[in-house]
Amino acid sequence: MADSVFVRLCALLDARQLPYEVLHHAPVFTSEEAAAIRGTTLASGAKALICKVDEQFVLIVLPADRKLASKLAKKALGGKSLRFATKEEVLQLTGLTPGSIPPFGSLFQLPTWCDEQLAQQPQLNFNAGDHAISLKLTYETFVQAEQPRLAALAE
């Protein structure tokens, strides 16, 4: 399944003729490990979190050096309750394990919300459906390809 997510992501970007770079590396399981192996800043990591807001799952994208601000996120998403998806829910929704999810909820029929602070990063880096494959693209390319809803979501 992980390969198919990577293939689908590349196909989505290729179909729109959007530029990106692929980096193959040793498997990484934290944002800090990923930034170190990529030789990039932690802030340039696009951390994808699957959360449940009331009864709906969503994909929330944050700079990797930030944490989800639950109160801000609930307000922005118009929800009363917010929680992280369990590993089992993440696997069921995406076929992936946490840490390998790309910031493209559209690949999983999930709405994508992006923290506004990510716009400060000229380049974004993220795992592309596999702990050993990363993609690098500009913030503008990400927004053009995914069209996420933007809000203040991180602290």
UniProtKB/TrEMBL annotation:
Pfam families linked to this entry: tRNA_edit
Domain YbaK/aminoacyl-tRNA synthetase-associated: 25-142
Top-rank lineage group of the source organism: Bacteria
GO molecular function: aminoacyl-tRNA deacylase activity
PANTHER family listed in its UniProt record: CYTOPLASMIC PROTEIN, MULTIFUNCTIONAL SER_THR-TRNA DEACYLASE PROXP-Y
Protein name according to UniProt: Prolyl-tRNA editing protein ProX
Gene name of the record: proX
